[in-house]
Amino acid sequence: MSSKTSKDGTGPIARAAEIVREYGPFAGADNVHGVTHDGTRVWAATGPRMVAFDPESGDTTRTLDHACDAGTAFDGKHLYQITESRIDKIDPVTGQTLASIPAPGNGHDSGLTWAEGSLWVGQYRDRKIHQIDPETGKIRRTIESNRFVTGVTWVDGELWHATWEDEESELRRIDPESGAVLERLEMPKGTGVSGLESDGNGLFYCGGGSSGKVRAVRRPKTAA
What's the pLDDT at 166? Predict the structure, then answer.
C-alpha cells in the first residue's frame, strides 16, 4: 500500500489508528510499560510485576513478580525484560532470571523486541533503535528516528516503532536501513503508547503508560 506524502514532503500523511479493543487496568498495576506476545498470551510490564492475559477473554492468566519498567520481548522460549539499566532473560514457566546483559541506554531504554536472532532496543530521548547481541548486549547497528522512540516491533519483515512526544503518539513503519518513515498511524489525542508488539496476525498491542491499559490496534494490510 503506497502512502500519500504530506505537503511539505517530510513523510507520509498520518492515518487514524483503529483501536479495536482495550484491556485493563490490571489489579495492583498503575502503569503499563513494555508489552510482548508469546504466540498465545499478551504480556504487560506493569512495574513491580509482569502480567500475562488471554487476548480473547481479557482474563489474567499469569503474573511474575519481577521488576519491569520498560520494554518486554519474547524469543519463542524466553522472556526478556528491561529493568533499570539491564535486560533480564527470564524463564516464563518458573519466573527465574537466567541471565542479564547491560542495556545500551544505561537506564534510558524504552521498547524491546526480538527478531532475526537479535534484541532491538528503543532509546526514547535519543531517538534511536539499537540492534544488540542477546548474549553480550553489544550493539550491532543503530537506526536513527526523528521522534522519541517508545515501543519497537518487527512483523513480516517490517520494522515499526511507537512514538510519544508532546502528548501525541503514533505507530510508525520505518525503513530498517535508512530510518525513513514509510507509514504513520496516529493514536487519538491523549492516548499514549509506551510499548509495542505485533501478534503476527493483524494486531498491534500497545502499552498505555499511566492509563494502565493495553490497547489492540489493527495493523494495516500492506500490498505486496
Answer: 85
- pLDDT value for 9: 42
Question: The C-alpha cell of 56 is what?
Answer: 480473547
Q: Please, how many CA atoms are within 13 Å of residue 167, restricted to the half-sphere of its CB?
A: 2
Q: Which three cell numbers stand for residue 83?
A: 529493568
Classified as helix, coil or strand, 144 is strand
* Residue 209: partners with Cβ closer than 8 Å, 6 or more residues away: 31, 32, 33, 164, 192, 193, 194
Q: How high is the pLDDT of residue 10?
A: 53
Burial of 49 (0-12, 13-18, 19+ CB in 10 A): middle
Read off the pTM.
0.92
Render the burial of 18-38: b for 16+ CB within 10 Å, e for the rest.
eeeeebbbbeebebbbbbbbb
Are the C-beta atoms of 179 and 143 separated by less than 8 Å?
Answer: yes
Mean pLDDT on 116-135: 96
